[in-house]
Amino acid sequence: MSLISIIIPAYNEEENIQLVYEQVKKEFAGIPYEFEMLFIDDASTDETLAKIKQLTAKTPKVKYISFSRNFGKEAAIYAGLRHVSGRAVIIMDADLQHPPSLIPQLIQGFEEGFDQVIARRNRNGEHFMRKWLSSTYYRLINKIVDVKLEDGVGDFRLLSDRAVKAVLSLNEGERFSKGLFSWIGMEQKIVDYDNVLRENGQTKWTISKLFNYGLDGLISFNNRPLRICFYSGAIILMLSLIYSAVTFIQILQNGIDVPGYFTIITAVLILGGIQLLSLGVIGEYIGRIYYETKKRPPYLIQETNIVNGADYEKNKSRIYPIRHHRRNQYL
Ligand code: UDP
Ligand code: MG
């Protein structure tokens, strides 16, 4: 029987750990697949880790990784992908907003040969401001970035082991998973579901976190903002050259009406153009350096019950299991 790995990032989800495990288990009772469940505890401050450990005591299907501090959901997903060994992987939230009842459909898509089976939600029951903001954001961003980002599509999806390898081969530090999943392409299938509201605990998104997430999406996938500087510099420079030439010809024909005007205005315009242009060039270089220097490990592991195995085969480079230390030593 093939193994399916379920990756669940969890940050302060004590009420949900047991629930999500039960529901996933129920779904697998009806299909001919084994499952393993990898919880990534993103340095929760409540009883999340304790709850996970209670599960691991009961069943070997449950594994966990606990981070040394809160590294965020993106890092948690990455850690998850690096440490699982299933034929396919399903990424889902701990808060049951990603209904486990969709698992059989996701797996069916995998059986049909798709490398990514993507769950897409509608936005029923969401605040209208957030709905509007999100849909505007997606409309705008798709005009600018190189990968296609779709509204209602998140991290809830199944990836085949091939797709997982592809995602892992993108080794940038600042990860914007949604963009990475889209970037790797491959055969994709979409499964729709109704939006579910969170039952226990609270969302970890604040308005400012959402904005930052939006900005990450824009920045991580292209250097167009830098290019804008370059092009606007070039255009201004060109226009000011034309303008100076025209004014100069007028002066030759009609003589000077305001003394000093021509010299000042040409100097300001041309210099301004050149400055913007060079800023753009510098920006390009900084952009490249920025892409190249992001070499920090995206997370540090405080504690885990995974014996090295899976990770070593997939990715020999980095693993930092820091064990037997007190958590706050790294804060
Ligand atoms: N999460 C995490 N680290 C964080 C914030 C969130 O691992 O710093 C997890 C969280 O436990 C949940 C998932 O990411 O399983 C989605 O978070 P949340 O429900 O707060 O986001 P929303 O569903 O509101 O978009
Ligand atoms: Mg949620």
Please give a structural write-up.
The chain is α/β, with parallel strands linked by helices. 49% of the residues lie in helices and 15% in strands. The protein has helices at 17-29, 48-58, 73-83, 103-111, 128-144, 161-169, 177-184, 207-220, 224-254, 261-293, 309-314; strands at 3-10, 34-41, 62-67, 88-91, 116-121, 153-160, 188-193, 301-304. Strands 7-5-6-4-1-2-3-8 form an eight-stranded mixed beta sheet, with helices on both faces. Bound molecules: uridine-5'-diphosphate (UDP) and magnesium ion. Uridine-5'-diphosphate is lined by residues 9-11, 13, 42, 70, 72-73, 76, 93-95, 97, 198, 203-205.
* Shape, per Cα inertia axes: elongated
**Integer average pLDDT:** 82
Helix content: 40-55%
Strand order of the largest sheet: 7-5-6-4-1-2-3-8
What does the largest sheet look like? 8 strands, mixed
Cα distance spanning the termini: 42 Å
Q: Which ligands accompany this protein?
A: uridine-5'-diphosphate, magnesium ion
Query: Rg to the nearest angstrom?
Result: 26 Å
Taken as a percent bin, the fraction of beta residues is 15-25%
* Structure classification: alpha/beta
Q: Strand-and-helix sequence, N→C?
A: EHEHEHEHEHEHHEHHHEH
| Low-confidence blocks of residues | 312-331
Number of helices: 11
How many strand elements? 8
